[in-house]
Amino acid sequence: MESTRVLLAVPPEINQLEIYRIAGVKAPPLGLAYIAAVLEKFGHIVKIIDSPTLSLKLSDFIRKVKRFKPDIVGFTAITPTIYKAYKAAKAIKNIYPEIPVIIGGPHVSFMYEEALSKRYIDFVVRGEGEYTSLELINTIERYGLDISKIREISGIAYRYDDKIHVTKARAIIKNLDELPKPARHLLPMDKYTFLDKPIKIFHLMASRGCPYGCLYCSTSYFWGRTVRFRSVDLVIDEIKDAVYKYKINNIVFTDDELTINKKWIMEFSKKVRQEKLDIYYTAGSRVDRGSLEILNALRKSGCGAIYYGVESANQVSLDRIGKRITIPMIKKAFENAKKVGLDTVGSFILGFPWETIDDMKDTIKFAIKLQPSFAQFTVLTPYPGTPIYYQALKEDLIEDFNWENYTTLRAVMRGYHFTRKVLQKMLSLAYRKFYLRFSYLVDLIKEKRVGIVLDILKREAVSIISNLIRR
């Protein structure tokens, strides 16, 4: 039996969407790279097409598909890119009606009925994708579309006899060290840059999962509540690939909370120093992990910027969203970061439905008072699969169901005390108030960072700031 030829793709033309035009960050599809590595390990022939990084139009994409001649095609998509994925899947089916088309990612993991209502989508991979994709592709390779075999696969949804069927959820991968390194040899590694500048970035995942289950965040619901870390040695090995193989020293950890495991972060810091790795990296953290001990360890191992999810100046809001932090914790974390010399990025969400205009203004004032190096303001966006999505549906707060607008920069839902139009104005106000202060601009000139902020403001400033790296 010949090896199955599997094409994995980020759909074309999403580089034209607002979320990509504004961001200016070209990031690799690590999820596809992990799936590809597992498939290759088990003998399949795999190609990844990272369409937005290559700025592919649909016609360009189809030409690449035809050259590869796949047996199976798999797409990944997030909420604002899902329509482009559907469009590309339809184009594939028009050319190759017999080829199974699979789709995965956070959006369809929860909206699988929507995906399978499209006749050009055959299977949805729900949640963590490596072993589900492998089992599904192995089954199709061996048995074709035999439904008696398909229904035994955990973690998928499919259509059969004009009905949508969902199999039992697949257990999470408890030991992430089982996974091979992501198949970066299938990616255009020289094209992952920041703000369209010639600054190459290496993206790396050390952990999956989050125990907190915040109201607005899909991480806990997609990756699970159990936090799983890869071994320090394997992460260091990937960093060595970045430095020595790809000649990249700027590392971005994609983890939401890299510092959640103190023992891991202390061991990691020690190992980076022992290996004398000259890197600059950014990391996400919780403010309740912002002790001087942890932050010093980060700084000594090459961390230059820490990203804190503050979200609100309102303790009631912090409690209601399940953040499990307090205002004093927030203040202390930013003070400590400044003491050890780390840049800080503060994330703030405007538009929790119960908040008032004054509450949002307080959050803006709080952001200024904290004096982070950079601030990221977003509007609350009810992503499918999150508790706020189901709450907003029940309370009829969502007024825009065009998924392409779910960028965190466009207001798609109203609150109890404000309209979408008012919320949009609050977002604009937040950026102006924070970035156009005289004292802040003076500091930027001193630190020679005016260019970064001009780029941020020019792009409507935005969700990519968490990946800031130093020039």
Describe this structure in words.
Strands 2-1-3-4-5-6-7 form a seven-stranded mixed β-sheet, sandwiched between helices. Strands 8-11-12-13-14-15 form a six-stranded parallel β-sheet. A two-stranded antiparallel ribbon has the order 9-10. The protein has helices spanning 18-23, 30-41, 51-54, 58-68, 82-95, 106-110, 112-116, 130-143, 147-150, 219-222, 232-245, 262-274, 292-300, 315-320, 327-340, 357-370, 387-394, 420-435, 438-447, 450-458, and strands spanning 5-10, 45-50, 72-76, 101-104, 123-125, 156-160, 163-166, 202-204, 207-208, 228-229, 250-253, 280-285, 303-311, 343-350, 374-379. With 471 residues, it is of the alpha/beta class. It starts with a strand and ends in a 13-residue tail after the last helix. α16 (357-370) runs parallel beside α18 (420-435). It is globular. It has 20 helices and 15 strands.
Q: Concise description?
A:
The protein has helices at residues 18-23, 30-41, 51-54, 58-68, 82-95, 106-110, 112-116, 130-143, 147-150, 219-222, 232-245, 262-274, 292-300, 315-320, 327-340, 357-370, 387-394, 420-435, 438-447, 450-458, and strands spanning 5-10, 45-50, 72-76, 101-104, 123-125, 156-160, 163-166, 202-204, 207-208, 228-229, 250-253, 280-285, 303-311, 343-350, 374-379.
What tags apply to this protein structure?
6-stranded parallel sheet, 20 helices, alpha/beta, disordered C terminus, 15 strands, 471 residues, 15% strand
Q: Which percent range describes the beta-strand content? A: 15-25%
Sequence of strands across the biggest β-sheet: 2-1-3-4-5-6-7
Shape: globular
Low-confidence parts: 460-471
Give the fraction of residues assigned to helices: 40-55%
Task: Report the end-to-end length measured between terminal Cα atoms.
Answer: 52 Å
By DSSP (H or I, 4+ residues per run), the number of helices equals 20
* Total number of beta strands: 15
Broad structural category:
alpha/beta
Taking Cα atoms only, what radius of gyration do you get, to the nearest Å?
22 Å
What's the main sheet like? 7 strands, mixed
Mean pLDDT: 92
